[in-house]
Amino acid sequence: MSVKIIAFVTVKPGSEDAFVEAARVCVAASRAEPGVLHYDLWREADGERRYVFNELYADDTAVQHHMASNHFKAFGLAARDLAAARPVIIQTHAVDVAA
User: Fold this and answer.
1) Which tens digit of pLDDT belongs to each residue from 23-48?
2) Is there a contact between 26 and 72 (Cβ–Cβ < 8 Å)?
3) Chain-centre distance of CA 66, in angstroms?
């Protein structure tokens, strides 16, 4: 079953460039992982400090693999110093509504 994760990260003022650079490495490596169907970073339109990770995985195993990856762990350490608050992470599972 597909898994969608949306993560909101607000960064400290002046840390935007460093955050994007750290995310760039993580996003590129994450896109190459098996089971990662979609992995993008967005910036909120009404401000420059809140970023949104939009992630889609084939299943829970792919999510677990991603969370255990070295690039994800390295990004988490970097982001901890750049974030203004704890990220808000929403994990969802697909709902089959086809009739």
Assistant:
1) 999 999 999 999 999 999 999 998 77
2) yes
3) 10
